[in-house]
Automatic annotation (TrEMBL):
Species name: Emericellopsis cladophorae
Region of interest (Disordered), ranges: 137-163
A Gene Ontology biological process term: microtubule-based movement
Compartments (UniProt record): Cytoplasm
A single Gene Ontology CC term: cytoplasm
Annotated PANTHER family: KINESIN LIGHT CHAIN
Listed Polar residues bias regions: 137-152
Matching InterPro entries: Kinesin_light, TPR-like_helical_dom_sf
Keywords of the record: Cytoplasm, Repeat, TPR repeat
Gene Ontology MF terms: kinesin binding
Name listed for the protein in its UniProt record: Kinesin light chain
Length: 185
């Protein structure tokens, strides 16, 4: 079920993916419990689908829970926890909450450098995401301290955050391909 949901997600069939991901999550909660790594992964995958749909508030709600659970279950320095930080930072970025995104991206980058090394594709990805967030912060500050809420709302509904995410993901994959490494989230 989870594999079919992932296929639907890859195909852009987000409604079908969401339905299956919710079913898989509910089954995992029932069978292995809320704190099992498979259940937490199912939660994270549902959040990714919400993000792809532009449903950032729902994505955030789940992503915060996923990060909290992973910190509790596997610890702050586990690669899954670090990925959860990066995912939540991407959500904050998409919501126009650049200060919060910067803090999480910076933490994820520091941990990835320490745990995975400077040349790991995930470290490179974190570097790019942090640069993107800092660029957005700089642009926001160049407009002045207050950005009209309509501008943030317009940015949330635009394709730009999705395109930027895809660009950085593909760039990181291309960089890792050249080094003979596989890429994960």
């Amino acid at each position: 079920m989870a594999s079919l949901a992932a296929t639907y997600h890859t195909q852009g069939r987000y409604d079908a993916a969401e339905t299956l991901k919710k079913r898989a999550l509910n089954l995992r909660r029932e069978v292995v419990g809320e704190k099992h790594p498979d259940t937490i992964r199912s939660m994270a995958e549902l959040a990714v689908t919400y993000h792809a749909q532009g449903r950032y508030d729902e994505d955030e709600e789940i992503s915060v829970k996923v990060l909290d659970l992973r910190r509790e279950v596997v610890g702050e320095k586990h690669p899954d926890t670090i990925s959860s930080m990066a995912s939540l930072a991407a959500t904050y970025h998409a919501q126009g909450r650049y200060d919060e995104a910067e803090v999480l991206h910076n933490t994820a980058l520091d941990l990835r450098r320490h745990i995975l090394g400077e040349d790991h594709p995930h470290t490179t990805q974190s570097t790019m995401y942090l640069a993107s967030t800092r660029e957005s912060l700089q642009q926001m500050r160049s407009y002045g301290r207050s950005v009209p809420s309509s501008a943030v709302a317009q940015d949330r509904n635009s394709e730009e955050p999705k395109l930027r995410h895809r660009f950085f993901r593909e760039l990181a994959q291309a960089m890792s391909f050249g080094k003979g490494r596989s890429h994960g989230s």
